[in-house]
Amino acid sequence: MDKYQESQKNKLFKTSHHDPYCLQRIEGSAVCSQCGAVYQAGNWTWSRPENTVVHSAQEMTCPACRRIHDNMPAGTLTLSGSFLQKHRNEIIHLMEHTEEKEKTDHALERIIKLTDSAGELIVTTTGIHLASRLGHALESAFKGKSDYRYSENEYGVSIHWTRNK
Ligand SMILES: [Zn+2]
Questions:
Q1: What is the pLDDT, as a whole number, of residue 102?
Q2: Of 32, 108, 118, 121, which cross-links 64 as Cys (Cβ 3.0–4.6 Å)?
């Protein structure tokens, strides 16, 4: 391993894996008053209200809804290249479909919004897993090139995907 690889490896170790939005201690169970996600046994899920535990749940706002409210994405994908202009709808459809699948099992992984900016499409997410899953979905469906940068000092990932022609 050369010096460069070593410094990259150290960077990975320094990366924070703790989402500051998930640090709040929650006693017992809770239900998000915004989206209906349920907190039980340490996890946010989509358990339905029929669930008996939820009966005594406290109302609060889940970490994903707080990120959406604050517009504080954990993941940012920037899509660029001429392929994007020609296949925009297919690309958006793939990302929405990927979000649906991810969100079913991981209630806190959601797309915040899609923004067009100077020929690029910026997609922000509430979780780093969804962002990297979107990056991989783009690569496997449309090829292209992507680059993943995990933030050193905070919980976050920035992904660039591009394809020309
Ligand atoms: Zn919520």
A1: 96
A2: 108
